Amino acid sequence: VHPYVWKACAGTAAKIPAIGSRVYYFPQGHAEQSSCWPDFSAVLCRRSFVLCTVSAVRFLASPDTDEVFAQIALDPRFPPPPLVPVPVGTPDGVGGGGGSGGVVSFAKILTPSDANNGGGFSVPRFCADLIFPGLDFKAEPPVQTISVRDVHGTRWVFRHIYRGTPRRHLLTTGWSKFVNCKKLVAGDSVVFMKNDAGELFVGVRRTGRFCGSMDYVPYRPPAGAG
Amino acid sequence: VHPYVWKACAGTAAKIPAIGSRVYYFPQGHAEQSSCWPDFSAVLCRRSFVLCTVSAVRFLASPDTDEVFAQIALDPRFPPPPLVPVPVGTPDGVGGGGGSGGVVSFAKILTPSDANNGGGFSVPRFCADLIFPGLDFKAEPPVQTISVRDVHGTRWVFRHIYRGTPRRHLLTTGWSKFVNCKKLVAGDSVVFMKNDAGELFVGVRRTGRFCGSMDYVPYRPPAGAG
DNA sequence: TTGTCGGCCGATCGCCGACAA
DNA sequence: TTGTCGGCGATCGGCCGACAA
Asked: What sections of A67-139 are H helices per DSSP?
């Protein structure tokens, strides 16, 4: 998942440390949020926390739920080992309060009307102006087809129309398929994004009590970074 | 899964050895049909086959596909150990060419019309006479609701009607739901069964190249049969 | 006897403007 | 500006007898 898209999906409250920064790791806190008790036999430390260096960060998304999460590799060695080169294409500063990288985004909580099978999606005016391509307002009605990609790169097509009295922006054809495929319900959020090149992206955030497992999966460092 | 229902689903070509019978086990033949190479470190034998005694048989069905399969535990010791008591309710001789135990069954390969979403199921006359409860032919049309259980015990309800010119037996309401839930397509088969008590059962056989994994799962013998 | 087809009817889907918050 | 509603037309699911293999 591209870090900019990932960040827009996760929201501004999610703070991910930069590679090379120093953090404290609290094994017990980690364990309490896990679905099963992790194997701490390799952690030869009696203190309740460990000073670590962030050695790698992976931005990931669940294939099932589109839920975005990060996998953060920690190195407890002291003094910290020399920093390995950051792979090409991974901007530094992401998640550390850095800039948005030219990506503009807009999130909306789905109303019951948005999530109902029978309806479309009411596009807030600010979202349409900020994110979507401009409509031809001389047409009657102004209408276009927009193509957006989700965090997996899957492409979704929506009919975007400006109609009704008073006039408002709506997504109609294609929207209910998106809602059903993503299993969205009222209260969930969708995030529309546009990058520098004008490409559109869409992410989802869920309200449900669904919680990631935080289980350990071995990290395989990039080639040449051994 | 009840052995009688299992046998009817598997068809007459499936032969399962009785408990206590002597069979030859061919490790290589087993391995060639497995999805991964089994661990044969415990088989201390250089010959290509091992004379075994069938110590246990379990009749199982896949929760996903309803595919029935058997798990056969083999004991290579010689001379054969004393036979443990057969658990109550497991008839001997099942699968060895024995009787049908009062279960009558009828299998039909689904036609395109049977599997189409728009249609019902044409019940062959012999199947209706042999398996289904008798209709009240004085009614116009003769119709009833039948309730059948699949290999998991899940209950399915079908509307059974005798209509059309010429008259024929059909399953209508409830049938397409069954086809969709079981993911049946033309060419697959359904098996209707009736036991001594008049209870109805239904099984499915698939034509697809789907193949069970034949992987090893430890067998836990019934209590008291150690 | 039974597989397939077209007809037909009701349910659902989904687009629409009205209207009010 | 935008959330919800009722209307309504299009589509689809599914029950029917006709007919032929």
From this structure: 112-115, 125-130
Q: What Å value separates CA B158 and C1' C4?
A: 22
Show Cβ contacts of residue B195 under 8 Å, excluding neighbours closer than 6 positions.
B4, B101, B102, B103, B201
Q: According to the model, what pLDDT value does residue B43 have?
A: 52
User: Could you give the 3-state DSSP secondary structure of residue B189?
Assistant: strand
Q: Summarize the confidence of residues B54-79 as an average pLDDT.
A: 60
- Asked whether residue A122, judged by its CB, lies under 7 Å from any atom of the DNA or RNA strand D, the reply is yes
pLDDT band of A221, cuts 50, 70, 90: very low
- Say if residues A160 and A145 touch (Cβ distance below 8 Å): yes
Q: In the complex, which nucleotide's C1' lies nearest to the CA atom of residue B143?
A: D15
The residues pairing with B22 across neighbouring beta strands, listed in sequence order, are B53
**What whole-number distance in Å separates Cα of residue B87 and Cα of residue B190?**
30
Asked whether residue B82, judged by its CB, lies under 7 Å from any atom of the DNA or RNA strand D, the reply is no
Ranges A28-32, B35-39, B42-46, B61-65, most confident: B61-65
Residue A98, pLDDT score: 31
Q: Give pLDDT tens digits for B99-122.
A: 456 788 898 999 999 998 777 999
Beta bridge partners of A191: A107, A203
> What DSSP letter does each residue of B101-121 carry, written as one string?
TT-EEEEEEPPHHHHSTT--E
Distance CA A50, CA A74 (A): 10
Protein B165 CA to nucleic acid D10 C1', in Å? 33
- Long-range residue pairs from B195-199, CB within 8 A, at least 24 positions apart, any chain: B195/B4, B195/B101, B195/B102, B195/B103, B196/B102, B196/B103, B198/B133, B199/B149
pTM for this entry: 0.61
